[in-house]
Specification:
Elements lengths: L6 E5 L12 E5 L7 H7 L4 E6 L8 E3 L10 H10 L6 E5 H13 L8 E5 L22 E6 L7 E5 L6
Parallel strand pairs: 1-2, 2-3, 3-4, 4-5, 5-6, 6-7
Antiparallel strand pairs: 1-8, 7-8
C-alpha cells in the first residue's frame, strides 16, 4: 500500500536499529527496554507513539501480548488514560485477540471510536486489518504491524493512518 495517505511506522527495542528518515516511530516508556525518550531524541521531527508494557505506565498504546498487559486489563487502562486527558488511548495486540478486546471495551462502556487499535498481522504485505483478517474483528485497525525483522534487521514495520499518530 504505497498510498500517501498512510504512514509507515517503525519500532524496535534497539533504537540504533531503527531506519533513518521515517515519519513515525514507536518506543516503550518502561519495561526492560525503555526506548521512547531515545527515539524522540534520535528522530526529533518524527511522530513518536508511546507504548506501555504494563497498566501502571502512562502512554498512547498498551502492549497486550505475552509478558506484558493482558486483554482483561485494557478497559481499566484505557479509562485511566482517558481520565488523564490522553487522546484516544489504545492497544496493540495480535489480530486474533483484537475483536475480543473491542467487545470487552464496549461492555465497559468504551466504544470503538474512543480507542486506537494497532494489530499485529504478519503477512509481509502492508495493510490495515479489517474483517478480511479475522471474522470477529468488525472494524478497521488504525495501524497494523505487518512484518517483523525484515531482512533479519531488528525492527518491526507497521502501516498506519495519520490519525493514529499523536
Amino acid at each position: 500500500m504505497s498510498d500517501p495517505k498512510y504512514v509507515t511506522l517503525y519500532d524496535s527495542i534497539d533504537v540504533a536499529a531503527l531506519p533513518a528518515g521515517g515519519r513515525a516511530y514507536a518506543g516503550y516508556v518502561g519495561g526492560r527496554w525503555p526506548t521512547f525518550r531515545p527515539v524522540k531524541l534520535r528522530f526529533p521531527d518524527a511522530k513518536v507513539v508511546s507504548i506501555a508494557v504494563n497498566v501502571e505506565e502512562d502512554a498512547d498504546i498498551l502492549d497486550v501480548e505475552r509478558g506484558d498487559a493482558t486483554p482483561v486489563q485494557v478497559a481499566g487502562w484505557v479509562r485511566r488514560q482517558s481520565m488523564r486527558g490522553a487522546y484516544a488511548p489504545g492497544f496493540y495486540t495480535s489480530i486474533s485477540q483484537a475483536g475480543w478486546i473491542l467487545k470487552d471495551l464496549l461492555s465497559h462502556g468504551i466504544p470503538r471510536h474512543r480507542v486506537r487499535v494497532w494489530t499485529a498481522h504478519w503477512t509481509g504485505v502492508p495493510h490495515l486489518c479489517d474483517t478480511r483478517c479475522a471474522a470477529d474483528f468488525q472494524t478497521r485497525a488504525g495501524a497494523t504491524q505487518y512484518v517483523s525483522c525484515p531482512g533479519g534487521r531488528s525492527f518491526d514495520v507497521s502501516l498506519c493512518r495519520p490519525q493514529f499518530l499523536p
